[in-house]
UniProtKB/TrEMBL annotation:
Pfam families: DCAF17. The chain crosses the membrane at residues 199-219, 231-250. This is DCA17 factor. It comes from the Eukaryota. The gene is Dcaf17. It comes from Hemiprocne comata. The lineage of its organism: Eukaryota, Metazoa, Chordata, Craniata, Vertebrata. GO terms for cellular component: Cul4-RING E3 ubiquitin ligase complex.
Amino acid sequence: MCPQAVAGGRRAASRVSGAHICRLLTRRALGFYARDAGVAHRQNLGLLRKIVCQESTKFKNVWTTHSASPIAYERGRIYLDNYQCCISSIAQEPRILYQKPKCSKSEKIEDALLLECPLGEMLPSPSDYKSSLIVLTVQNWLLRLSADSGEILEKIYLAGSCCKFRYLSWDTPQEVMVVKSAQNKLPVAARQAGIQQSVLFYLAVFQVLPLSFIGMLEINKKIFGNCVTDVAVSNGILIVMYSMGMVRLYNFQAIFEQFMEQPFALGQEFNWNGQVGRVGKYPFGLPCNIKITDTPPLLFEECSLENAFQIGGYPWHYIITPNKKKHRGVFHICSLKDSALAKNGIQEMKCCSLEPDWIYFHPDMSGRIIHVGPNLIKVLKLKEVKDNTDQMEIAEDFLIVANRENCVNNAVTVTASGRVVKKRFNLLDDDPEQETFKIVDYEDELDLLSTVAVTQIGADGKAHLDFHCNEHGILLKSIPFLESWDVTYSHEVYFDKDLVLHIEQKPNRRFSCYVYQMVCDTTKDGECSSHKKPKPAVRKKGGRIFEYT
């Protein structure tokens, strides 16, 4: 073969190889690279979903603990004693990650957020790459704690006695955090003396990991009006709520850009309004460096009963309840573009119940809507109206119906002797003797819709957690809770991949946490799937009592 032919073949091979590499790089950029970690993770979650839903898989109540203070759960960690004790829920036996001495009332934690490391970013400290807990104390301290040891990693003083910060929330999850004060209210004596209080709320905004101060602002009645009852920040929108049901939306980023007087960094020395100190250090705290001097441009406003207002769907829609008590339980779904009511946009369960039905946009980002009543769950979708592409229609995607096959609610019954008895009342739709939906949630990693349904006859209440296909609503798995479920108590249920957690609040501030873990059981009727709860073994670990099943 001649040298030219060999060289030409090499160049052709090089061009083919280069094109192949180009295609691989393009596919990788689009998320199609077969050996990418994300692909492997999705495949693993798909396998886990199949294991969770197969018939031989059971969820066993492995241990239980009780507390005299609220119990919180975040990503495999159970927090007790006002976040002074942290227990790993991953192992079959409770593993205490840390146990701190009991804190004083002045160190009480008001609120907390779990902070997780962002992917693909260089961070200044090795501790930033591990999960941490942001907590807010009653004395206006913002602390960043190690999620595994409870060690204080960062400490920021927010403000003096001029305001009491109480609430933590995300503006953008895991990126921008908002710390909100309680509403400022003058003492009765001061109000009677005619003293006016113009500042209603304070908001402090932080970028997280690394934790950095963006700014602090006041919500002033001179700017926003006298009837402001609450404020919130979400996805770059400042939401202001009023006593007459009005909800107003403002561009939060535009407020920063227009009204920020001077940027500050944490630890920076400052001279502000006659005060000299360091930003975020005691006793000065944070400067209020965003002064809103004029009403910001209004993005949107709407009236809704009890300020209930939600935005979602595609194209953007919002859900409200008309601002009259007689319309409670009636939901209007309207276009955000022009406030036009969608076709079939008035949704009403027409149920007679003590607890109201509720509605919200599906958290799976599909744009669907979930409407939950006592015995019916409707998953709705937005679709274009035929012959009118400018209008959207609300249509049913699928329904989930409570099991009330054995429910008999006849107005007239006949006794064994032949006497006719007429009932003077009918059962409510959420009567505890009938199976009633109490909780509906979405497990995003396994793409499962979970529901908790309860039936209570007398003092004995039975509940079960069901997993449904998120796409079609088909029942895939049912898990009975072994503990009795009292509908008059407050309950929380967490389904986190292979773990189910039930937190119950009983009267007199008694809290219980029941931990269920996935096990593979080849027997048809194992103890983990029966309503009969075996007698627990009581053990003490780290000064805390646990019940093992």
